[in-house]
Amino acid sequence: MVEIEKDLFCDMVKFYGNAFHLPPLAAKIYAYLIFDFDRKGVAFDEFVEVFSASKSSVSSNLNLLLNLNIISDFNRIDERKRFFVMNEKYMQIRFAEIITKMEDELLILNKLKDFRNSNDEASLKKFEIYQNLFQNSISNIKNNLDQL
Questions:
Q1: CA Rg, the chain, in Å?
Q2: Gap between the terminal Cα atoms of the chain
Q3: β partners of residue 73
Q4: Does residue 49 have a pLDDT over 80?
Q5: What is the pLDDT of residue 122?
Q6: Does 96 have pLDDT greater than 80?
Q7: Taking Cα atoms as reference points, which of 40, 45, 30 lies closest to residue 81?
Q8: So what's the pLDDT on residue 47?
């Protein structure tokens, strides 16, 4: 069994449930896996036992997390069981998606600016600030993502 700190676990379940739009059991599974610091993996049966959930509920929530690339699974050579761990590349995947969304929004805003074709200096200044915020954020995320 993975050792957890209950209050921190509850905070993590709430945060990751909201941040990733996860159902409660999926958020619990993900938060639980974060406490697997040695990345030994957690077996299916442990989730069923720890969360007192049905096998079908655990299975469907694990599949959801796998499909979202939030977690990954593996088999050990000497066992038939599947073990689950956090996807160590998930943060890169998540931030790459954030960058893509920001770049897409910036393109749309530029098209809107061109369509509006305003000479209002106050509006143009606001847009320039907004555009710089996007560009700086994208650049900052990209630079830091390379360091992961």
A1: 21
A2: 29
A3: 84
A4: yes
A5: 86
A6: yes
A7: 45
A8: 97
Contacts of residue 9, Cβ cutoff 8 Å, sequence gap at least 6:
31, 32, 35
Residue 125's φ and ψ, nearest 5 degrees, are -65, -45
What's the chain's average pLDDT? 92
Summarize the confidence of residues 101-117 as an average pLDDT.
90
Residue ranges of alpha helices (H) inside 42-89 are 44-51, 55-67
Q: How many residues does the chain have?
A: 148
Count the alpha carbons within 13 Å of 113 in the hemisphere toward its beta carbon.
17
Which H or E run contains 108?
Answer: helix 90-116
* Both structure tokens of 20: 């990733």
What is the distance between the alpha carbons of residues 56 and 39, in angstroms, rounded to a whole number?
A: 24
The gap from C-alpha 129 to its chain's centroid, in whole angstroms, comes to: 28
Spatial contact of 53 and 28, defined as CB atoms under 8 Å apart: no
CA dihedral 32, 37, 41, 46 (to 10 degrees): -40
What order do you get walking across the sheet with 82-86 strand by strand? 42-43, 82-86, 71-75
